[in-house]
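Fold this complex.
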Amino acid sequence: MSQFEPVIAAFLCNWCSYAGADLAGTGRMKYHPNVKVIRVMCSGRVNPLFVLKAFKEGADGVLVSGCHPGDCHYIKGNMFARRRFAVLKNLLAYVGIEPERFHMSWVSASEGAKFAQVINEVTESVRALGPQKKLTKVGIDE
Amino acid sequence: MSKTEQNIRTKVKQLLDEGKIRYCIGYETGSDSWHVTPGFIFDAKDAEKIVFNPLCANNLVGYLTDEKKRELRKGEKADTRPIALLVKGCDSKALIQLLSENQIQRSEVIILGVPCNGSIDIHRLEKLAHEMKLPAEAMYSMEITRNGNNFTGEWKGKKYSFPLEKTVFDKCLCCVTPNPLISDELFGDKIETTGAKNYASVEEIEALPVEKRWEFWSEQFSRCIRCSACKNICPLCYCKECAVDSADIVITPQTTSKEKTNKMPWVEKNSELPENIFFHLTRMMHMAGRCINCGECERACPMNIPLGLLTKKIEKDVKELFGHEAGLDPEAKSLLSIFEEGDPGDFIK
Amino acid sequence: MTSSNSAKNRDFVIKKEHIPKFLKGLSGYSIYAPVADNDLITFKLVQKFDALALNYSNAVKSPKYLFLPQTETMFFFKKGGKDKVEVSEPKQEEKIIIFGIRPCDAAGIAMLDTVFSGDYDDTFYQKRRENSVLIGLACNDPDKNCFCTSTGGAPDASDGLDILLTDIGDSYYVNVLTPKGAKLLEKSDLFAKPSAEHAKAADKTHKNAHQKLSEKIDTAGLPEKLGAMFEHPFWKQVSMKCLACGACTFLCPTCFCFDINDLEYTDTATKRVRTWDSCQFGSYTLHTSGHNPRPNKENRMRNRIMHKYKYHYDNFKSPGCTGCGRCIIHCPVNMNLKGILKELINLEIGQG
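Structure:
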């Protein structure tokens, strides 16, 4: 019996989270293959429009991951992201999008294991919700 | 004509006689006695047309940025004199927000402040009039005046009373800024603040389970026809290139053809539900920390979408999360361009 | 105008209480009628006919959206086999009845008919139109903002309609205007021959409605006058308070501008979609070069009024406006088209 395999769009900052993902790979750590990675230079570069567009294109879940506060390669990019996504997360939940579809994390370059754990958690919580239809663009006239 | 109206007219006449302003933006009587309309006074003799009464709901601040976007006609010389405009308490916050965002300079505007203790929502008044079985000839003809906690009028010897809480906008019932926070001159007596911010309608929706919230909002957004009235009436939506308008692009001689073809159409014009939600969520993200809840978007919407439930949610969230309030300090930095060490981060893994 | 004297065999009468039964009996049709929804009246697909809002003045959106939808997929195309493109069109077979449409809205649809089958046959519009039957409801009580009699229309006009109903108390007087309309009544036993009293009552309803619209605006000289005042400062003055929000154009029964875009829905499949556009939007006339021939609100306001009262008139010999009044009722800044027309008529352009 095949189970639902969610598609998770993950925006990973180049210097910390993406490197952490790399480390998980070189360390042969196992984690769910459901994530589609989009590398950005900094989590502060992630525009809320990216998150909405990912949902529009059919992503079942979205993750934004950056450096820990104080460790941002560009000093404070992740601080702006923290503010921005606090607002977006509340707004998405308010209009009826399940809050477990949007996640944010701090994963450093040395935290390969944490990256794998975050992906597994996000995948399982989105899997439980089923396919995302609410924000997905309409295809053939339905 | 009230004393306030007379004083405003005198002042505007004086400013125009002395050539001190380009024009004055105020209110004039509209298509009938139950409507007012924005009035642009260029000549001193037209200052007599200005009115100020409980029907004056329009936020006139948006016209300032409108004027900035206007291209000069061939041979037209730029007029650099300030513009005078009437602002109520809520309007003044939009003005302060524009000042804090450097969209207008303080010297470009002469602020004629008018304390306001409630604006009539014409849809509510019409509904109430129908319920009270007001004679058809009386509707739109009867003069309405404020009388304590009611609006009253008289028609053919009979008196009618419209309770305040059934006729004014929601924003007026919880108004904490009846007096303009910024002005060059104040017309009318200062009003004591009796309202208090009330987010009960937002909390009601927050308390619903997620699927009920979705049921509510998907029904509301399905009615959106994407006319953009909400965006265009908003005094703080002034971007020449709007993120939620797929055809909007500012083209300069330096714009390359690659930039034009690769312009990302975040939101298209189709009014399918996911697209509508994208439009409104994006607009709300852009209003976070900037929206002063003047309620114009909800008033403008022809399809009666309760946009106030979104704007109030944004206002509540930024206050609770960051202690931020829009429209109070012309020197304030915009919410999302700053951060605090202690910003909430519990939701981050 | 009632054809009561000339074509008695095409006139009928039906009791109001029988309307739900009549509509239920029309199988094979999707019926759209005015219903109350969130404090406004809109035309919606109805399956139950007991709560129709037929005492309404007019719906917020004109029913033009049933022929020119806000969003319409024209066709889909996707990568087929090697180097092949498969094109398919959505099926458009739904037969609809619009019940209770007002004469101004029907006149608007008649106007759109001429536009969409003029120089170019718009098959998307025409197919929907062919599959439709319009049952109109003459106005008893025109809204104060209505001015159909100033634009060549009337509260009991039959332009664009297949059947016209007139409220005569507990019944409707029924004028059958086209064979399509006649077909609907064929199988129903709810329609009776009208008496002279019925015809008289219908005439009275029409007369009362006309009386409410007695303040006519004489727009006869406008096409020529407008042609002579393209550069007049009137346009700047009248458009200053306009927000260019587009609400008027979207609600208008005769506005038809649209945009066409290709929207991808998978990597290999795209749909071509037509959506409403508005001459009031800044980007409407934006050229790729960056030049915009209508950069300001005054240019766009001028275009809107000249389109309705000159260009359309020049092309089709009738105003491009049916006087429904929606633009006045729903404008957030109370722009008043009636007032503007009166100003234009009284304007002395020699001094411009």
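Chain C touches chain B through 50 residues (CB under 8 Å).
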